[in-house]
User: Fold this.
Amino acid sequence: MDADTGLRPPRPVALLLPGQGSQYPNMARGLYGRVPAFTEPFEEVLGLLGPLGEQALADWLAERPAVDLDHVSRAQPLIFAVDYALARMLTAWGLRPAAFVGHSAGEAVAAVLAGVMALPDAVRLLAERVELIADAPPGGMLAVAANPAQLAPYLTAEVVVGAVNGPQQVLLAGPDPQLEQVAQRLRAAGHTCMRARATSGFHSPSLAECCRRALPGFAGVRLAPPETPVFSGRTGGELDPGSACDPVFWAMQPAEPVLFAPALDALLSRGPHLLVEAGPGQGLTALARRHREVASGRSAVAPLLGTRARQPEADRLDVLRAVRVLVEEGHPVQPLGLDDLAPAAARA
Amino acid sequence: MSVLDLPTLTRILRENAGADESVDLSGDILDIPFPELGYDSLALLQAIGVIQRDFGVELDDDAASAETPREFLTVVNGGEQPSAESV
Assistant:
């Protein structure tokens, strides 16, 4: 280590928590049953979900799932459980995150990690939400390589901007067949579009009615100001105590756009951070990597998992790689349950 | 004969990512996962569109699920591994 980096204090860690669309078959499976610091919180979430958790676990482990893992009743519980368990794993190993940034469903995980909502409440509301959203009109989300202004002429009352992910990446959301019709018009005009993994129009008016029906549930739980800063995709900035304690804010969040790019901007404008993606895939890593603060090297990003399931050891090797980045940065992290991997990782 | 080499791929990726996003793509990036270079499957799909248009080739959208530049170039070049001199 040279003198310059040796003198630099570790950049604070912000966890990026991905949401709907980040799931893939066998995500994080290599950690389950192998890394206790992951397995325990993962089973805690699914246990709190009762029968829904049992079904989600069975389909996660099954070669041929009874219900598609992209369906809201599987994707939402499993993404929540993976995000939460990865974050808890890092804290059990000694990491103290300085901030949380949640994307879509990841924002509920951020709320729990920051002390806004208790885990049992958040999980119970997640189960209610899954049941309500199952009644929403079929639809989806569409990633488009364009900015919101370019897309304005294609939007309708139903098909709207569901997420602003980066300067040239927007997710449109809405019911089908309307969303697919917009996709065809965009493709005909030469825009690159790709369906995201979702079977409902998250973050669009399609979900507004379900969200309104979830309001009594949110009104009945204790909400507290964040103990650790949360950068919110709902507001595009740091979550203020008023919003954090507002049941309407949380109940309507799945029907409102995700302003991820502004939220990331707000976080990185506070100073350099080491961003760690704690969830399935590397979608938020790719977005963060293109941010000028990360591209310049002032901030950095490391994902905990890969982009798809590979051989059984891959998940643990990926986590170990991220742990190395944290340790090199100067964060004291002791990865219990990965100790046996050191020789394999040294060869990799 | 290979259709696409690494310098051309990085040029296409850089041009499509937008002007204010200047990820360093120099050095040995053949085996670095695309997301860690700042490119997701949408960015790859966009690159595939440009390659089809500029090189007059038909590409399967499967190329968008390539994990690394090496995988992508191998798919685009019909199974031919990128050689040392094309890098």
